[in-house]
Design a protein that fits this description.
Blueprint (H helix, E strand, L loop, with lengths): L3 E7 L3 H10 L8 E4 L4 E3 L4 H5 L9 E3 H4 L5 E3 L3 E5 L4 E4 L4 E9 L4 E2 L16 E2 L7 H10 L3 E7 L9 H15 L6 E7 L8 H13 L2 E5 L1 E7 L4 E6 L6 E4 L2 E3 L4 E2 L2 H4 L25 E3 L12 H19 L12 E8 L2 E7 L18 H17 L7
Parallel strand pairs: 1-2, 1-8, 2-5, 8-19, 10-17, 11-12, 11-17, 12-13
Antiparallel strand pairs: 3-4, 6-7, 7-8, 9-18, 14-15, 15-16, 20-21
Length: 395
């Protein structure tokens, strides 16, 4: 096994695989390797609809061996430490690999342990989450078992992948309760650390209207810190110095606290927040010019979504190749991201915006209106684009 690669990629998620596909094709393909210990690759955007009973979770994954691009070496090991001055990465098994350029794209980690009392209770007594393959079925089970009471949907303090997902499952759950004739017996609560239902004004107004129409109880500036399963009680701290809020629940959908992986936080690549510190436009590391990053573990100040990665990776690849050739880095990413906000079965608001919160919409109609066509785009078209376009380096 060789120990040096033209390009070494840490992470076999959306960013790592799509970057590898672009770099390993063409007239003069590069010697590319991916460090990724996982057996499976997941299309996580569909987990909202798995939680709502539309798809099975098996529909959202493929073996990692099927998505590694042809000609790319798969190093089935977890990265552990970085030596960017020496252009090398050492794995948990103690092997060291060197590179000309490095792409760091390991995604986020889920910090379940930060919620007191949760350990051992996921999937029991109405506690559920769409945020992991192992837990997503618990949401559909909790919905089917719901009869009356509070249905709570949380949004934690800090950065999360797909910032719209915590409310997407709320909307689809609320619609499910309507369809089952249980809505009059349910109080639906959205409890968020944020200050509003959404951060972009155009879509915020549309969602506030839905909150009023569908009788959603909203609590902002609140972060889930404890679950008391025996009492079926959730405890939320105030981010504004107020008294803790205690809410009973029949169903509790938890969006866990999230952060960059620990091996990134403790590395020389990290900024003060633990993210891989890159220029927001070029995606090149601010201190190590042969290191690039895209996706959820990067410091890019935009929503962490697959749609953002689809726009980031072509810029990263263009600038990495420019670096190899001694040319200026001229490709620029302007913060585009997309959040397909599922607002029920067959309903979706397609939010698209940039670093400055300006709508950057793809269609010639008002995307702040709920539409079935946009729901169909999310449920049926985008997964195909992902598997057969983005991961192949074609879209």
């Amino acid at each position: 096994m060789t120990s040096h690669y033209d390009i070494l990629i840490v992470g076999g998620g959306a960013a790592g695989i799509s970057a590898a596909a672009r770099l390993s094709s063409g007239d003069a393909p590069l010697h590319v390797a991916i460090l990724e210990p996982a057996d499976w690759h997941y299309y996580q955007p569909l987990w909202t609809l798995v939680g709502g009973g539309v798809f099975t979770r098996e529909h959202t994954r493929k073996p990692m061996s099927e998505v590694i691009p042809p000609g790319v070496t798969w190093l089935k090991e977890p990265a552990a430490t970085f030596a960017p001055d020496a252009h090398s990465v050492t794995t948990a098994e103690g092997r060291t690999y060197s590179y000309d350029q490095l792409i760091v794209a390991p995604g986020l980690q889920l910090d379940w342990h930060k919620i007191k009392g949760l350990d051992g209770h996921m999937g029991q007594g109405g506690i559920c989450s769409n945020y992991a393959y192992d837990t997503v079925n618990s949401t559909w089970e909790a919905l089917q078992n719901f009869r009356a009471g509070n249905a709570l949907f949380t949004f934690p303090r800090g950065t999360v992948k797909c910032g719209g997902a915590p409310q997407k499952i709320m909307w689809i759950s609320e619609h499910y309760l309507q369809k089952q004739g249980l809505r009059d017996r349910a109080d639906v609560h959205f409890v968020s650390s944020g200050g509003a239902i959404f951060g972009v004004e155009k879509y915020k107004k549309a969602l506030q209207k839905l909150v009023a129409e569908r009788d959603i109880h909203t609590h902002f500036g609140r972060n889930l810190i404890e679950v008391r399963p025996d009492e079926k009680l959730a405890v939320f701290e105030s981010l504004h110095g107020e008294a803790p809020l205690e809410l009973p629940y029949e169903m509790l959908h938890i969006t866990p606290p999230q952060s960059a992986p620990d091996f990134i936080k403790t590395s020389p690549l990290a900024d003060a927040g633990g993210w891989v510190e890159v220029d927001r436009h070029t995606l090149q590391h601010t201190r190590f010019p042969d290191v690039f990053s895209a996706g959820d573990a990067s410091s890019l100040p935009t929503a962490k979504t697959g749609a953002a990665i689809r726009k980031q990776v072509p810029v990263l690849v263009a600038n990495l190749l420019a670096r190899r050739q001694g040319r200026p880095l001229t490709a620029a990413y302007h913060g585009y991201t997309s959040c397909p906000l599922v607002t029920g079965y067959g309903r979706l608001i397609l939010a698209e915006f940039d670093y400055d919160g300006n709508p950057v919409e793809s269609f010639p109609f008002d995307q702040a209106q709920e539409r079935y066509s946009m729901y169909a785009l999310k449920a049926y078209m985008l997964p195909e684009m992902y598997w057969h376009g983005m991961l192949k380096g074609r879209a």
